Amino acid sequence: MSTIPLTKRGAEILKEELHRLKHVERPAVVNAIAEARAQGDLSENAEYDAAKDKQGFIEGRIMEIEGKLSAAQIIDPSSLNAGGRVVFGATVDLEDEDSGEAVTYQIVGEDEADIKKGLLSINSPIARALIGKEAGDVATFQAPGGTRNYEVIAVRYV
Q: Which of 6, 53, 55, 114 is deepest in the core (most CB within 10 A)?
């Protein structure tokens, strides 16, 4: 299995979710199953079916998170020294060459990506176009609305 890049913050978020699933969600669904069983006939018991479905989802998510954490390569952006190049974990200030709009993104792993918070997935077209660029370079990528060009204004490792 290949390694999965995660920032320290992303790894902490996954660890918190794993803890919540194991210590809050899993016991709650086990209790719900026990209560549904106590009601008798399971063949027509909607609560039992719903609880079993939820249990399957929780167990699957636990396995998924444990797999990701075991294969994770945790990167601390503040300890990076990439010589001003855009790398995983870097925070990049950009300017849209067409509109002049300034935006700031941090390049993160898939699980922590949230465009509204300025967190770009490493697998997104814009992040792939930015990797290796330096301040002053132009990144060109294909967006749903057509080709976009962003000038790299600054690269920070925070």
A: 6
80 neighbors 8 (Cβ within 8 angstroms): no
What are the extents of the domains in the chain? 4-74, 77-156
CATH topology of domain 77-156: Chitinase A; domain 3 (3.10.50)
Q: Do 120 and 108 meet the contact criterion of CB atoms below 8 Å apart?
A: yes
pTM: 0.80
Helix%, strand%, coil% for the chain, nearest 5: 45, 25, 30
Residues 64-74 have pLDDT tens digits of 999 999 999 99
What CATH number does the domain located at 4-74 have? 1.10.287.180
Q: How far is CA 40 from each of CA 48, 52, 99, rounded to the nearest angstrom?
A: 10, 15, 65
Nearest C-alpha neighbor of 88 from the set 2, 1, 10:
10
Crossing angle of the two packed helices 46-70 and 26-38, in degrees rounded to 10? 160
pLDDT tens figures, 27-36: 999 999 998 8
